[in-house]
Write a sequence for this structure.
């Protein structure tokens, strides 16, 4: 179950990061809302993960997979 929580946290973080550019400095309401809610979901599920997985391991996976997912998403959206 902790890895499911971590996967949800990663997916939410990638969605939030993708919406961040579209929010145009938080001046466009819907992408701004998606960004804030996405990061809130991401941090919530990351906190659930930390009950089972050591912080160093969970954070390394979350940040690495999130960065990789954000990069992949930006590459797909730019082409």
């Amino acid at each position: 179950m902790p890895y499911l929580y971590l996967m949800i946290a990663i997916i939410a973080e990638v969605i939030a990061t993708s919406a961040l550019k579209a929010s145009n400095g938080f001046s466009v309401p819907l992408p701004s809302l998606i960004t804030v809610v996405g990061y809130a979901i991401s941090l919530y599920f990351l906190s659930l993960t930390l009950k089972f997985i050591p912080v160093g391991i969970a954070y390394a996976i979350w940040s690495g997979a999130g960065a990789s997912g954000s990069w992949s998403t930006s590459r797909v959206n730019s082409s």
Remarks:
- The mean pLDDT is 93.
- Helices lie at 2-22, 29-49, 55-78.
- The chain is about 85% helix and 0% strand.
